[in-house]
Known about the structure:
Elements: E1 12-17, H1 26-30, E2 37-42, H2 53-64, E3 69-75, H3 82-91, H4 96-104, H5 112-117, H6 122-135, E4 144-151, E5 156-160
Parallel strand pairs: 1-2, 1-3, 3-4
Antiparallel strand pairs: 4-5
Amino acid sequence: MRMLDRVDTQKVLVITDSNMGVESSLTGITQREQEELLVFNSYGALISQPYGCLMRNVILAIYQEEIHDIYIVAEKAQQYDRDHLLEKMKEAGVTDHILKTLNYLDAVQYDVVNWLAGPSDVYEAMRKNKELIMKHPLIPGTVNVRAFLVDRDSEGIEEVI
């Protein structure tokens, strides 16, 4: 049975930075109206695990919303200050012992603070995100994936190849 309130427009999925600065660029990049966009926000638009929560949501969106196009959009100049992040964590009670234990257990790519701060090369991170989605065994090969970097200062847009 068909839902009466469902709109029959083909939506596209956009994975974007949590920073609101790139949202104004989304309709121009996708050539779609705002109501045709299914937007997932993530710090740095980073997909850190192939079977994590964000990837689960991407896979479900593909099958539930019949997504055929995915856009990954991040801010070109974004990077989180590792030292500032570490200082804030310590102020909140995260001890060196906790960090050393997590690093020893290899919980997340050898260094918890670097994992949280994100990659220093945003272009390469977006290229890896794109590749991760395109090569994921649960994602159909017919899904188009494109990645873009937005420069908020110049309002320039660069496609990640």
